[in-house]
């Protein structure tokens, strides 16, 4: 029987986590779970329902109520809330500006974490986020922590938005938003962004996606051996 393991990839916004995780999942024929998309889906639903995000009870009810599902696509992963596709909508500036507040609510995190652990329980999973190696999958056989400079991450986000035809802020505005997001994610009381003690840190600032993937592939193969 072929051994299947859990691969946890953490890091700040736009450090390349999702892109790398998708490529690794495809390489090893593993399931890819985009945890960030789950929190974004809760945030989008709350915004669409005009729920005050400071009303934690209302946001928690949404997290309990909605069904978040994924479908693989040729160049990406499609995200659905209650059967309606939200792949593009969850990447809007408004969702990006508010998702940290939603993700910081303990009961929302507990709800999402339970779903994520169920998806990962049999191994053969690549999961990315901000607390995968520290909280969601603390026993993952491979833990990676990706970092890059705020300027490089802003440039990536800007190019990605332009390529997808998503209305975008200026590079300077995106960099400022990323720095604010880092600060929020690193200082929140519940499951803050931090590197697991046994995670391997990779600075992707001057690396191509292929170079990052190749380095992690070697780590995974070593763990499988």
What descriptors fit this protein?
225 residues, alpha/beta, Rossmann fold, 5-stranded parallel sheet, 3-stranded antiparallel sheet, 8 strands, globular
Description:
The protein is of the alpha/beta class. It has one domain (6-224): Rossmann fold (3-Layer(aba) Sandwich), CATH 3.40.50.300. It contains nine helices and eight strands. It has helices spanning 17-28, 35-48, 56-65, 93-103, 106-120, 132-136, 150-164, 171-187, 209-224, and strands at 6-10, 31-34, 68-72, 77-81, 84-85, 125-129, 142-147, 200-203. The strands form two sheets. The chain has a five-stranded parallel sheet with strand order 2-6-1-7-8, sandwiched between helices. A hairpin with a 2-residue loop joins strand 4 and strand 5 (84-85). Helix 1 (17-28) packs across helix 9. The model has no long low-confidence stretch (mean pLDDT 92).
How are strands sequenced across the largest beta sheet? Answer: 2-6-1-7-8
Order of helices and strands: EHEHHEEEHHEHEHHEH
Number of strands: 8
Low-confidence stretches: none
CATH class type = Alpha Beta
Number of helices: 9
Give the name of the CATH superfamily. P-loop containing nucleotide triphosphate hydrolases
User: Portion of residues in helices?
Assistant: 40-55%
Summarize the structure.
This protein has nine helices and eight strands.
Topology:
Blueprint: E1 6-10, H1 17-28, E2 31-34, H2 35-48, H3 56-65, E3 68-72, E4 77-81, E5 84-85, H4 93-103, H5 106-120, E6 125-129, H6 132-136, E7 142-147, H7 150-164, H8 171-187, E8 200-203, H9 209-224
Helix pairs in contact: 1-9, 2-3, 2-4, 3-5, 7-8
